[in-house]
Amino acid sequence: MNVIKKMMAAVALTAVSAGVYAQNYPSRPITFVVPFAAGGPTDMLGRTLADKLSQVLGERVIVDNRPGAGGSVAAQSVIKAEPDGYTIMMITLGMQAINLFCLAKLVMTH
Q1: pLDDT tens readout for residues 6-38
Q2: DSSP per residue over 4-58, as a string?
Q3: What percent of the chain has pLDDT over 70?
Q4: Helix (H, G, I), strand (E, B) or coil at 91
Q5: Predicted structure pTM score
Q6: Fold for domain 2-17+26-102?
Q7: How far from chain centre, in Å, is Cα 76?
Q8: Which run of H or E residues covers position 61?
């Protein structure tokens, strides 16, 4: 449980420090894409992080579950989103380590 608290603190600190540079961000709800189905442990962690981000940023953070293809469905939805900082994604180690090599077509460009 300590690891989860440390992760939430890191996310909160990052969000707070980002506010120093962009005083008017966020001005509308943020979409937080979770690459797994609702109800699982990754979803619960994602919802906890979204709640904490909402508290820190003062704006709603909406969880959008996009399960499938080892996270590729979620990644593609984020890649296609407007690059304005209002769509963020939770990723796992498996997605970083495995999908990079298995799914060469998943290029992070807009």
Answers
A1: 555 556 556 555 555 556 889 999 999 999 999
A2: HHHHHHHHHHHHHHHHHH-TT--SS-EEEEESS-TTSHHHHHHHHHHHHHHHHHT
A3: 68
A4: coil
A5: 0.71
A6: D-Maltodextrin-Binding Protein; domain 2 (3.40.190)
A7: 13
A8: strand 61-65
